[in-house]
Design goal:
The protein has 6 helices and 14 strands. It is globular and about 55 Å long. A 6-stranded mixed beta sheet has the order 5-4-3-2-1-14. The protein has a 6-stranded mixed beta sheet with strand order 6-7-8-9-12-13, covered by helices on one side. It is 22% helix and 28% strand. Helix 1 runs parallel beside helix 3 (63-75) and helix 5 packs parallel to helix 6. The protein has one domain: 4-Layer Sandwich (Nitrilase/N-carbamoyl-D-aminoacid amidohydrolase). Strand 8 (161-165), helix 6 and strand 9 (187-191) form a beta-alpha-beta unit. The protein is α/β, with parallel strands linked by helices. The protein binds acetamide. Acetamide (ACM) is lined by residues 38, 113, 142-143, 167-169. Acetamide binds next to loops.
């Protein structure tokens, strides 16, 4: 099956233009699964909670989720995309998964990074895996990678592919995903953004691009550049992630010594 990402630089606060950009970019894509960046529709560097609230949407009734669901149906494709969610008086840094039948589900970011702690409530969904005809897809968002438990939990729950919407500013994640995939024998699609934001007199955040498709054996199938917009799709075999044997004596899950952890 074909999985990949669309790396670009969202325009802060311009939901319509960001969503249309994605619709245009994916209109010719030959892919089964496309991952978009974290907060792809809003941009990242908020200056107040009111601003976050004004740009947040309910899921699945909000326009952005509806547009993604329609795109998934039209293109017969799964999409995982980061959205600022409002629900029951709370704001969440969330990701939705949509597919050929429309909206499927939501993940709310577990480990909030930096000023996200000022705006968002910590995610309460836990790590979720969706069984689909193209494979079992788990989601984590950006800084979740820093906690090995995120990928491990998704792998233990059966994920074959980890969809990883991101707005990376630290340099380490693309290299670290090699280890995350190797130690769990899962594929990962990390979709980062490019560009920079320096809003409201704050220090500039420069996003590192470098979106990546990583194989279950730690091979980097492709890494994007730091600055270029790119739609990339790789051929992957999700069933290969089900074999946790490292050799005839070692199995990644069976060899875990949970009594010592
Ligand atoms: C991040 O979690 N956006 C670094």
């Amino acid at each position: 099956m074909k999985a990949g990402f669309f790396q670009f630089s969202p325009a802060f606060g311009d939901i319509d233009s960001n969503v249309n950009r994605v619709i245009n970019a994916l209109s010719g894509a030959d892919a089964d699964l496309i991952v978009l960046p974290e907060l792809f529709s809003t941009g990242y560097q908020f200056v107040s909670k009111q601003e976050v609230e004004s740009l947040s949407e309910e899921i699945p009734s909000g326009d952005t989720t509806q547009a993604l669901a329609a795109l998934s149906i039209r293109r017969n494709m799964y999409i995982v995309a980061g959205i600022s969610e409002k629900s029951g008086g709370q704001l969440y840094n969330s990701a939705v998964i949509t597919g050929p039948q429309g909206y499927i589900g939501t993940y709310r970011k577990t480990h909030l990074f930096f000023e996200e702690k000022l705006w968002f409530s910590p995610g309460d969904t836990g790590f979720r895996v969706w069984e689909t005809p193209i494979g079992r897809i788990g989601i984590m968002i950006c800084f979740d990678w820093y906690f090995p438990e995120s990928c491990r939990t998704l792998a233990l729950r059966g994920a074959q592919i980890i969809a990883h919407p991101s707005n990376l500013v630290l340099p380490n994640c693309p290299d670290a995903m090699v280890t995350r995939c190797l130690e769990n024998r899962v594929y990962a699609v990390t979709a980062n953004r490019t560009g920079a934001e320096a809003r409201g007199g704050k220090s500039q955040l420069t996003y590192i691009g470098s979106s990546q498709v990583t194989s279950f054996d730690g091979t980097i199938l492709h890494r994007a550049t730091r600055d270029d917009e790119e739609l990339f799709v790789a051929e992957i075999e999700p069933a290969k992630a089900d074999n946790k044997d490292i050799n005839q004596f070692n199995n990644l899950f069976a060899d875990r010594r949970t009594d010592f952890y």
